[in-house]
Amino acid sequence: MKNTGFILIILVAVMFICPLAATGGAKEEKSGTVKITKADSQDGGESILVLSSSTKKINEIDMFEYVVGAVAAEMPPTYHSQALRAQAAVCYTYAVKKRSSPDPSLGGADITDDSAVHQGYLDAAARKEKWGDKYETYEKKIEEAVKDVFGKVITYDGETITAAFHAISCGQTFSAEEVWGKDVPYLKSVTSAGDKLSPDYSSALTLTEDEFKKAFAGSGAELGGDCKKWVGEIKKTDSGYISLAVIGKKEFTGAQVREILGLRSACFEIKCSDGEFKITVRGYGHGVGMSQYGADYMARQGSDWQEIIKHYYTGAEIK
Fold it and tell me: What is the tens place of the pLDDT at every residue in 5-58?
């Protein structure tokens, strides 16, 4: 009887353990977080807590898988392999930095997958849906890029940097001081001439007087009379960033105008004629740090990922 009881205990234990092991991926933790891992994890246990912008749940994600998903969300898989390696190093560094001092508003998470706040992340299912029959090709390409740089942190003066990046510059990146009003020694303005070759380098927006007025409603701008007088002085920095735009007798920063009008960047021109506002925009994103298109251009010209990183992050080291 004792032997029979012992065997029954073993069988019950197996029944509970096997389904958990068979999932191999996500499981619900007591804390309420969901743990996401991959069979080919490269990191030996390193993970990060990610707040899902869609479910509002916190997922504990294997760090290697997280970086693969972050690169997939942030950079086209068709980009050069060295550009993907640079992006992987940037995504890993960004995650490490956020994990070291998480925002309390995230409710215990280290980072959010909202790309408008931090950086994006696509899980394996989302990557399959996005890439379709190209999934295996792109997944392998990105995984190889991540494997080559995983664990490499970009630093400045011994400290992990805030690895800012954007899609396309206006031909020269902006400094952190220009955009955010804070001087960051490794986030200086640098040339990125290859961006001018991007098919998405320039964009345009046309607004009627009423649409323009509606956009600035509540901003304090006084918009009345001749629309040609609505836009006053506009100041640009040497890198092309709009540092000041007087609209309706009120001063705005380029970033504020960009947000109000939904522009791709703060490098723009506004002209009024025949009752319409024609706005020409150059670049895509905040313009600080690494230009992704610029990184791809540099890679295709023969630069490796370390050279790309050191070009866009002034004085940075890779450890």
Answer: 443 333 334 333 333 333 334 444 434 555 555 534 454 579 999 999 999 999
pLDDT at 82 over 80: yes
Encode pLDDT of 266-282 as tens digits: 999 999 998 899 999 99
Q: Reply yes or no on whether the pLDDT at 89 is more than 60.
A: yes
Q: What range does the domain containing 52 cover?
A: 25-152
End residue of a domain, out of 93, 124, 152: 152
pLDDT at 67: 98
Length of the chain: 319
Written as six digits, the tokens of 33 are 């977080």
**Which phi and psi (to 5°) does residue 170 adopt?**
-90, 15
Is residue 111 one of the residues assigned to a domain?
Answer: yes
d(CA 305, CA 288): 18
Residue 225 CA to chain centroid, in angstroms? 41
Query: In this structure, are residues 51 and 119 in contact, taking their beta carbons and an 8 Å threshold?
Result: no
Task: Work out the widest C-alpha separation in the chain, in whole angstroms.
Answer: 98
Q: Torsions phi, psi of 219, nearest 5?
A: -90, -15
Residue 302 to residue 317: CA distance in whole angstroms = 20
pLDDT (tens digit per residue) in 224-236: 999 999 999 999 9
Taking the alpha carbons at both ends of the chain, their separation in whole angstroms is 62
In this structure, the answer to whether residues 29 and 148 fall within a common structural domain is yes
74 is a domain residue: yes
| Residue where a domain stops, chosen among 86, 117, 152 | 152
Q: C-alpha distances in angstroms, 190 versus 68, 80, 311?
A: 28, 21, 8
